[in-house]
Amino acid sequence: MSAGHPPIERIEELRKEIRYHNYRYHVLDSPVVSDAEYDGLMRELRELEAAHPELVTPDSPTQRVGAEPLDKFEKVRHPKPMLSLSDAFDEEELRAWLERISKLLPEGVGPKDLQYVMEPKFDGLTVVLTYEDGRYVQGATRGNGIEGENVTANLKTIRGVPLRIPVSPDGPPPARLVVRGEAYMPLDQFEEFNRRQAELGQKTFANPRNAAAGSVRQLDSRITASRPLSIFTYAVVDSEGIAVATQWDSLQYLRRMGFPVNSDSRLLPDFEEVVAYCHEWMEKRDTLNYEVDGVVVKINSLEIQEHLGAVGNAPRGAVAYKFPGREATTRLLDIGVNVGRTGSLNPFAILEPVEVGGVIVRQAALHNEEDIHRKDIRIGDTVTVRRAGEVIPYVVGPIVDLRTGDETVFHMPDRCPACGEPAVKPEGEVAHYCVNAACPAQLVRRVEYFAFRGTMDIEGFGSRAAEQFVKEGLLKDVADFYYLRREDILPLEGFAEKSSDNLLAAIEASKHRPLWRLITALGIRFVGSTVAQLLTEHYSSVGELMAATQEELEAIEGLGPHTAGSIVEWFGRERHRGLIEKLRRAGVRMEEREEVGEEIPPTLAGLTFVITGTLPSMSRDEATALIERHGGKVTGSVSSKTDYLLVGEAPGGTKYNKARELGVSMIGEAELLGMIERAREHGSTESMESRKLRDSAPSVIPCSKL
Ligand code: IVH
To answer: Looking at the whole model, is its pTM more than 0.85?
Structure first.
């Protein structure tokens, strides 16, 4: 800005621009500037406002940071009662709802004339936002439906809440607008948030709903400002100066004003489609980045809704089709311990069978002894069990009020439950380990991992075979695969001539896998497929890697001291050197064919990727680096220029849906690795974790944390 130029103009310009970028980001999910550019605009505005405090207005984008703490929340009365919804728990109840209202329709309107709006039922905290002359003046919780709490400052910190409407395109604001919506915490952010809270020794939340509710209801709005909250709006509660005749129009109107409106809502003309959509949604539930506990079906015409009235505090013109709950309570009968590939002893809950999210759960994850004690989970407790998405069910915590006094505190056994050797807990680690190199349980996991598709890919050799071969004494280490004979396999249960020959052929084929697969398959701690590929860029054979020093390894960009130390330690063991020698003698390929230092082929040149969700074996940064190293490009949002959406667990709903809409191909991490590899070699890969997640029935606990 030039000297002498009135700052007010630049300030206004910046605010307008920032509001527009907020709208692109939070409402359209289609930003047009980078985060850095956005931050630059905010910085400039903050500096100008600091120099001219008299020009600060409450609706400036800088004012989302939270205000002075309150002693208590004021009560506010809603302009109209905030009604609730009646529930339908299955298709029959949904049809019964239609039948009921069909008898009450206005003269001349039949069920065939009805149109329906379907919306996700967001599982967060209901909020009510009030705007006067286009300015955000009040935010409240629903409370008892008549009165709520004044959380104006708190809701202002949520970036999706417009402080001025309309955001874009400019036009006259409504004289008054009261909007209903749901504040929520996106699933990926929830996990990250909880992890950070635990690290800081602060309160963690059992589910995203509690986290959202707890964050909105903070007396200190600066705390709310630090929480990753979002919002969806879905109803015009009250207004002056606008006319909408249908629910569908309301959604379009809200979106035009600049409110985040979920893009999966549908206008459907036929009840059979409504039923189908409810089923479709149940399936889709696990792919979203926010929690839903059902689908809301609303009669589109607001006039008909009005005519139908309410029963109790639920309008007749809408119904919630509820999904099975994600959580259930049951008794913790016992705590079992199984042994992982690295010897880690992993406690798991043995439960009185209970239905969670539509499946029967008998076992659930418990992380480690420390975590069990921190949550004060005792054997015999009634506990809350949660199952979200494809993730293995886990124990959230005990219901202390239901204790009888007969509960017992869990202690990690001091011996390995599989081999009986003493267990140890290394300094600074939370897990206990069995350090017996000959422990059969560890061996089963190691063998399974070695043969898995993402490592040496011995086709047809799964967990059952791993147990069987170890039990029969045929595999005492992973190199024994290459010394198996037909007559060893034939007598085993489930094997005949053909299957034995197939297995031997698969084992033979695995000798020629690329070097990074072998390095991954060795199961060195912290060395997954990404690190292994990085290593093969610097070392062209197992021999070279074996000779690498800690310093040399640490000098590789992307390798930390932990990983470097783990590699050096692994190869330093006599037993492991012997294993490598045994593999070499069997003819397993030990070197990369390409020359070291050779340029990486730009396999992915010209391809644009977008990443969503949590990938099984690499972080998003790692995936981005991998794609870029192979010549591809990674961008932040899906557009017609996107070639592939790389989908991990709990993918973001917007990216996923946009990709579906545009017909963008979706691939998983395994396919990405496969694409890269196919250009170098032939074959495909898949990470162990992703297969685990796909294959594991929800009641099955992985016997190892791979
Ligand atoms: S409409 C008059 N639509 O679910 C009925 N409610 O059990 C107004 N909810 O706390 C509610 N998503 O706030 C409606 N798409 C949606 C919703 C939704 C979540 C909440 C609602 C209330 C609860 C009702």
So the answer is: no
